[in-house]
Amino acid sequence: MKVNTKTRYGIRTIMELAFNKSEKDIFQKDISLNQEISYKYLDQIITGLKSAGLVANVSGKKSGYRLTREPERITAYDIHSAFNSRLSVVDCLLPQSTCSREGKCAVRNLWQGLNMVITDYLKSITINDLVRDQFELDTKQEELIFHI
Length: 148
Prior knowledge:
single chain, 56% helix, globular
């Protein structure tokens, strides 16, 4: 299974919004610059996040964006689901897939179990967890720079 770019950039976009402690919305150009995501591609990311109900631009078309709920209530799985209908480590687990070995393949249980482990893990990680981890990394970097 490979996590697609929209999911990866979606997580970074949500984290950027979660870092914002002010009452103001964050503009797309600032997210693009801070997260090194092309402005045009970020448009697609934000559209997906808005459709999933994770972000909103409250003040209208020329406004910035903000989270629709607290970072501790948004999981990595929520963001993955904004861009993917289902998590599947192998194609034979997809609903539209037909497998000639279905019903007689013990390996399918292995893939279903792995899917559940990955899904549960993504559901257990909140944006708040990631923001905290990023803050710790940033603090360590600053300490290294300060000591040099």
